[in-house]
Amino acid sequence: MIREQEQGANALPLNNILAGDCIEIMNSLPAGSVDLIFADPPYNLQLRGDLHRPDNSKVDAVDNDWDQFSSFKAYDDFTREWMAAARRLLKPNGAIWVIGSYHNVFRMGAELQNQGFWILNDVVWRKSNPMPNFRGKRLTNAHETLIWASKQEASKYTFNYEALKALNEGVQMRSDWVLPICTGHERLKDEAGDKAHPTQKPESLLHRVLLGTTNPGDVILDPFFGTGTTGAVAKMLGREFIGIEREEAYRKVAKKRIDAVRKFDKEALQVSQSKRAEPRVAFGVLVERGLLRPGEELVSINGRHTAKVRADGSIVGRDMKGSIHQVGAHMEGAPSCNGWTYWHFKRDGQTVPIDLLRQQIRAEMREQ
Amino acid sequence: MIREQEQGANALPLNNILAGDCIEIMNSLPAGSVDLIFADPPYNLQLRGDLHRPDNSKVDAVDNDWDQFSSFKAYDDFTREWMAAARRLLKPNGAIWVIGSYHNVFRMGAELQNQGFWILNDVVWRKSNPMPNFRGKRLTNAHETLIWASKQEASKYTFNYEALKALNEGVQMRSDWVLPICTGHERLKDEAGDKAHPTQKPESLLHRVLLGTTNPGDVILDPFFGTGTTGAVAKMLGREFIGIEREEAYRKVAKKRIDAVRKFDKEALQVSQSKRAEPRVAFGVLVERGLLRPGEELVSINGRHTAKVRADGSIVGRDMKGSIHQVGAHMEGAPSCNGWTYWHFKRDGQTVPIDLLRQQIRAEMREQ
DNA sequence: CTTACCCGTGAATCAGTAA
DNA sequence: GTTACTGATTCACGGGTAA
Fold first, then answer.
1. Which residues does the UniProt record annotate as the domain RAMA (chains A, B) (predicted)?
2. How far is the CA of A135 from the C1' of C15 (A)?
């Protein structure tokens, strides 16, 4: 058996990038031979016109042919096919990760369930540095969603609980991961110096996925290999990979990149540590959480000025409205003012600085 | 028309909790009459068993020949029905929020898209104090997902950008919201002292939703009302609500809760306004009123270009004449330009943006 | 050599009104 | 419905250059 798998016609082409359509290629590989699949398929963004930043520069949007689908039906057909091919390749105890945005992730999640995959977690990648919403028409799209699912409900999937706990400063890893997007030297460039791929994923993300849900020596398949982040991190971590990629330009960049990777590079093991900054608390959050009521009166530390709280966290003084800091500075004729210590409120006859409420919120946040 | 809506058979039962099945009741209400729907439907945590409605009646699966997926089918049928009924009730510019976990949110998101809703954002409610994963077999399930969608792609949905920005310490609100789960005094108890509802949502969550995507006076429908968080926050914020709930016990708790809510006073409900809401002022008016003289020179913000004001409110640059916006865009070779902030004039040795003069005019208009 | 400043850029379903 | 015009709108970083 093992000999066949290693040497026969059906041998797994380990640590290679296969050229071609991922559905065809997956269907040509031996069933039940892969431990983990990581899939980052086209998102079907459905972008309309151009978008400019406030400084008039144009956003370099994802307008590649591979992201164009004629309808939801066409996208669903595509999803059903690649997912079925992927599921066939998985060992009985295998698992899959998919990543997407609101454009496609709901359709992928539903199809995973339809095909009998068993969802273990949905994971939110919270981007520490997302692109802002330039027109102010929506919320900043600051996250993407991953779904982790086993081949079937009965699968004894791999989960390295302690490793992830260690990675998370000794407390259980949660379903929301704060990681920066891929920029700087990690972002691969083409010969012209432009980004080699429009949607390169950060290695920190794959590091966490592979560390947490595979063992050394496991076989990891990425059917939408792109510039090979999955392969690069798999190699670092001593896992085997199989990549499938249609576009020659991407394959070329990926091969060069992976060839340069050294196994068990200790520095690489540290890239995924996210920094923990002191959380910023907006004054509006006190209102939102009911610690202060809209309409409630604030008094200045010297008792000379008052202001009223509004529902959105701005405040209104005698002749001005704005943030707690702005209004405080205005009242005192000062260039700046720390509103947290300047403004007080009354509870049970006591006058208390609003900073006390901020400390309360911070304590809650630390509890996790 | 108005009389009919207020007093006729089709009158909207504002600020009431309606008893019964939400699909039937929604179908009995007048179409196109609701501004926002907030839906927190059953999460269907036991997808592999029978599916039950909130009243514990069993949902019949239409297609039983594929037993493994029949329960998904039943959940999808249920989702399709209530969502279609909800969509019918929305005004053309209306919008919907749904909330769920990985058990059901993918199916809801896909169905929203299938029915022609237009997804605006998916939002992650990151729980600051989730329940840990006791068995250590998965990641701590520390978030839930909300989807915000307009009735159709062309809808001019409500988004109070500035208010949410104020709520977030002056930077635009992101798609991930850190909020604690509902505990303590806010968590409603029944007579026995147990929690009155298993999945009561925190008021802070609804505060952000309603402040950000409705205006005072808007009609908000919650078809899975439960203990009435939507109604309580709607009342606080000066919005109208309609609740639908099958279970008498929940309706009773909700009514008592909402009756005790005090509306915030009007001034507190004024939120930060977008500049887009300000009245338009034609540049020519500045000339007309003598704030700028025909022949006066304007200088671009970077000091590189000049233009001359003409009596009709057009301006002339080196090789082009037109509006302040057209000439500015031409000078910079940009697709567009906000002439109000681009062009400056000189007074007493100072260089001042012409937008300052527009603000003067607007102030005069407000006094009038 | 260090610090300060400027510039570039990222999976984006990104406008509203009047004629 | 279409066209034309007005005019509102950005956060976190990394890298490079200037001081």
1. 266-366
2. 8
Torsion of CA B291, B297, B300, B306, to 10 degrees: 160
Structure pTM? Answer: 0.90
Between CA B125 and CA B141 the distance in angstroms is 11
CA distance B221 to B23: 13
Cβ–Cβ gap B142/A365 under 8 Å: no
For residue B274, which phi and psi values (nearest 5 degrees)? -80, 150
Could you tell me how many residues make up chain B? 368
Q: Residue A198: which residues within 8 A CB-CB, separation 6 or more? A: A60, A62, A64
Grade residue A94 by pLDDT with cuts at 50, 70 and 90. very high
* Strand D nucleotides, any atom under 7 Å to a protein CB: 5-15
A42 CB closer than 7 A to any strand C atom: yes
Contacts of B159 in chain A (CB under 8 A): 137-138
What pLDDT score was predicted for residue B292? 96
If you search the block for the tokens 């925190």, which residue do you land on? B202
The token pair that represents B41 in the structure block: 């439907």
**What does the alpha-carbon distance between residue B333 and residue B327 come to, in Å, rounded to a whole number?**
10
For residue B125, what is the enclosing H or E element? Answer: strand B118-127
Task: Show which positions of strand C are touched by protein (CB under 7 A).
Answer: 8-17
C-alpha separations of B216 from A284, B54, B135, B290 in Å: 18, 31, 46, 39
Sequence-distant (≥ 6) Cβ neighbours of residue A162 within 8 angstroms: none
DSSP character at residue B185: G
Decide if B92 contacts B158 (C-beta within 8 A): no
Q: Are A15 and A218 in contact (CB under 8 A)?
A: no
Residue whose entry in the numeric block shows the structure tokens 């009514």: B255
- pLDDT band for B165, please (50, 70, 90 cuts): very high
